Amino acid sequence: MTGRKLTNMELDILKEIGNIGMGNATTALSVMFNTSPRMEVPVVKFVDFNELADMVGGPEAIVTAVLTHFKGGINGMILFILTLEEAKKLLSLMLNKTYPDDLVSFDHMDKSALKETANILMSSYISSIGTLTNLKLRTEPPAICIDMAGSVLSMPISELGQVGDQALIIDSKFLDNEKSINGFLMFVCDEESSDKIFESLGIRC
Amino acid sequence: MEEVTKVGIADWKLCKAPNKITTIGLGSCVGIVIYSATSDYCGLLHILLPSSKDIKNNANRAKFADTGLEDLIGALEQQGMRRSTMRAKIAGGAAMFQFSTKTEIGSIGDRNIQAVKDTLAGYNIPIVSEDTGKDYGRTIVFDSVTKDLMIYSAGKTEKRI
User: Fold this and answer.
1) What is the third-level CATH fold of B4-160?
2) How confident is the model over A143-163, as pLDDT tens digits?
3) What residues are paired with B131 via a beta bridge?
């Protein structure tokens, strides 16, 4: 999905897929949160590798990232990234716990809650792509990593690096009544796969 | 006042004494420093992938171990550094995510390390020290005067190799 510019129409379609996926995810999450988080319209854009980490606080900022591969009609990976601050907000909402400001690591329960939240979001997104395109997609078990943003992102960047120098970012934002939580959903696939998405939707042949 | 040169992803730069050179947040990527006891110059390369030969889109030569090292070594030779005096220190190549299923890309760190070692061996450049593999990120800073490579990781004490 790199190496060339998408047309406005293609970007709109990805945005719309994002909206639908996020809508589904919100419903699922509202049950977990026991509240009703809203989501803003996602921002979809291409970002250069060296600027990716800046979106989440710079290459040395500690972030939590959950990564899942998806396979089927198209292959790629999807990541959900939160800064440490945003992860604490999300966890305190979910688990009713408080986290000290200087905390830089999470326990097993915290990690598993982050992984599950991310899994719901990512699976919803992937399944909405699957439904819209009629492609049979399945997600693999996710893995979590908490480290410097630059290091965490080296994994998707390596995969992307085989096809280009940019990543497609779907910037999502959840809003709760009192707290807003900012997260990044990063959708990564190769050119062949993105072509397939557009072909299946009938806008490119 | 000494300066610190920053090297980005898929990039290399040279640095001259008494300055330092750094790259931030190595994950599965590998950082390679080449220096010489008889030169004021050193260079740092931050590679992403093992080989330019496996991939169609290989215009950015600094992305790969093979072409990146070729260019870095060439640039150092242009500054008068003799190949036979070149030494290397390497860091990075971690497996950041632990998946329950093994994938080719999951082992990218290991493959990067191996490609860097093989390429350096091809140029007869010895690796003096390394801090590679495992499952955490590294920021590295090389001091062109002391030839020390400092390694900083989240929640760990710094290392000097």
Assistant:
1) 60s Ribosomal Protein L30; Chain: A; (3.30.1330)
2) 999 999 999 998 888 887 777
3) B91
